[in-house]
Amino acid sequence: MIFATALFKDASVNGFLLSVVDKKMNTPAVELFFRGILCNWLVCLAFFVPMSMKENGAKMFAMMLFVFCFFISGYEHSIANMCTFAIALVLHHPGTISLGGVLHNLIPVTLGNLIGGGALMAYMYYYVNKPFMDDPSQDEH
């Protein structure tokens, strides 16, 4: 279905996309891992920080700011990469883009995303909210 849209008929569009995918598939695993950690930390911040705000405009601005930071940073997100890789694999692509490259990227990035969101954010929220959890007066509300 992606191929049938004809959005990728133009070689210049394909060239940029394939260049990005080629770099993602050939980046060292350690770098991908740490990019995954930082990426999901930003994505989680985009969700959690606006929850404490009252105004919808401020919430939307905060979310967009964090997502923009994730987007321009070059960090890696496993779900976003799956979409990018699927498009690249459907197009006529060079030999440097392969299913092996997909696995080379997705394994360390997914592990990094899990640590960034599951460990860093969870620990931070636990640490920040621990005084409220230990305060017995909070149980009355």
Descriptive notes:
There is one protein chain. With 141 residues, the chain is an all-alpha fold. Helices cover 74% and strands 0% of the residues. It contains 5 helices and no strands. The chain has helices at 11-25, 29-51, 56-73, 78-90, 99-134. The longest helix is centred in the last third of the chain and has 36 residues, at 99-134. The protein is elongated. The model has no long low-confidence stretch (mean pLDDT 88).
Low-confidence region ranges? none
- The count of strands amounts to 0
Which range does the strand content fall in?
under 5%
- Assembly annotation: single chain
The secondary structure category is mainly alpha
Query: SSE order in H/E notation?
Result: HHHHH
Please give the radius of gyration in angstroms: 19 Å
Count of helical regions: 5
Percent helix, as a range, is over 70%
Give the CA-based shape.
elongated
Mean pLDDT: 88
First-to-last CA distance? 53 Å
